[in-house]
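Hey, I was hoping to borrow your eyes for a little while. I've been puzzling over a protein and I'd love to understand its fold better. The fold is given in discrete form, as structure tokens running alongside the sequence. I'd be grateful if you could look everything over and explain what you see. No rush at all, and the record is pasted right below.
>
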Amino acid sequence: MVWARRLTQTACLLLFLSLLWKTRLVEGVTPSAWLKVFFDLDPLVQLSTWIAAGKLVAFPVLAVLTLVVTLLLGRVFCGWICPLGAVHQIATWLRGRSKGGKAGRHPWVP
């Protein structure tokens, strides 16, 4: 299970970074629609957009799906999909290595 989580986190982080790279602001060019997928998955982004705009632009299907999966399986988004979660675990692992870390400690496991 640990390897599946690492692979999923790595793939999502690389996907996010590639989407970020491809969406450089170039005048007259609209960003890729794929970038919107990461923002549509996050319920907090949907909530903050709703509060800022005062209305729902569209029904947040992916955000509701994320909430339902989280209620059923736990912190799936943060632990498996969120790029910040992956960066946080990598930083924690690197910090543990720089301080000598515990013997037998598995990288990327909280």
Observations:
- The mean pLDDT is 79.
- The chain has six helices and no strands.
- The two ends are 14 Å apart (CA to CA).
- The CA atoms of residues 39 and 45 lie 6 Å apart.
